[in-house]
Amino acid sequence: MLKEGLENSGHYSAHCVHTGGDALQAVVEENFDLIIVDVALTDMSPGTLIKAVHEAKNELKIMVIPLIGQAVPQTIEALGINGVLTKPFFVGDLPDLIDTALGRRTSPVFSPPPSPPPMTADARSAKSTGAASQGETAAVAVAEFVTEAPPAAVVVTVSSDTVRYLRANEAEILRLLDDLNREVRAEAILLIAGAELIAQAGMLAREQCQQLAKLVAQSAQAAAQAAHFLGEPAGRFTQSLHEGDAYRLYSLSLGEGIVLSLALSSNVPLGMIRHQCRQIATQLSRYI
């Protein structure tokens, strides 16, 4: 509802996610002017998210939605926030409230943005999430239309020796990927080192797989940055999942910069995907 209200005002482009972890990853991957955090988040404390956002993008403005009938907790106020959005709020008041948080006196004048670049797999997945329905908790990142695309994530470089060893064993690696594909019937199964596609299985053409590999590598690096900000012991998330209406993209980290990624239909049970990938990962570990 908040996302729709912001976009219908004609002043803003809004992106809505439903967990603090997804909010932080979006902040790392994209350029926003403002993030609106609901203190009723359940996957992490709002204070943890706000601290991580400050560390990731110190210039990013932050608004907070407190619980109904309550003030913003002092522990959160002490972190430095730029505005409060009290429930219930009225759509017509949103531009003025956001202008105040952004340090502006009047609402920005809307003009349509130039044609955007092709949407990445991550962006398609994020857009499919949609706005939160009434009663759901959500972290909402709000951005004005921008004329320049955000800089691409820097991809972890894998040592040339590791890449050479993987390529020397490509035939055996491909056999393992084919074994996995017989179990899950994926559109594509990729083994990626850095941004390089080492081996592939599935139905997508080589050129499509190479492009997907670059997108997965960028997403994996952004997720690793988010993991670092959240204090993950290994400094990275072992698994990631992006879901759309028809397809899901599941990735499993096998080592620094090395990822096993599957693009497959959304009706394949996630538990089976994880189980089969872990079995293949154990066998692939001898080449890493």
Index terms:
20% strand, Rossmann fold, Beta-Lactamase, 2 domains, alpha+beta, 288 residues, 5-stranded mixed sheet, 5-stranded antiparallel sheet, 40% helix, elongated
Topology summary:
Elements: H1 2-8, E1 13-17, H2 20-29, E2 34-38, H3 46-56, E3 61-65, H4 74-77, E4 83-84, H5 94-102, H6 121-129, E5 139-143, H7 160-168, H8 170-184, E6 188-193, E7 196-202, H9 206-230, E8 239-243, E9 247-255, E10 258-265, H10 270-284
Parallel strand pairs: 2-3, 3-4
Antiparallel strand pairs: 1-5, 2-5, 6-7, 6-10, 8-9, 9-10
Helix pairs in contact: 2-3, 2-9, 3-9, 8-10
Walk me through what this model shows.
The structure is a single chain. With 288 residues, the protein is α+β, with helices and mostly antiparallel strands. It folds into 2 domains: 2-143, Response regulator (Rossmann fold), CATH 3.40.50.2300; 160-287, Dynein light chain 2a, cytoplasmic (Beta-Lactamase, 2-Layer Sandwich). It is built from 10 helices and 10 strands. The chain has helices spanning 2-8, 20-29, 46-56, 74-77, 94-102, 121-129, 160-168, 170-184, 206-230, 270-284; strands at 13-17, 34-38, 61-65, 83-84, 139-143, 188-193, 196-202, 239-243, 247-255, 258-265. The strands form 2 sheets. It has a 5-stranded mixed beta sheet, with helices on both faces. Strands 7-6-10-9-8 form a 5-stranded antiparallel beta sheet, with helices on both faces. α2 packs parallel to α3 (46-56) and α3 packs across α9.
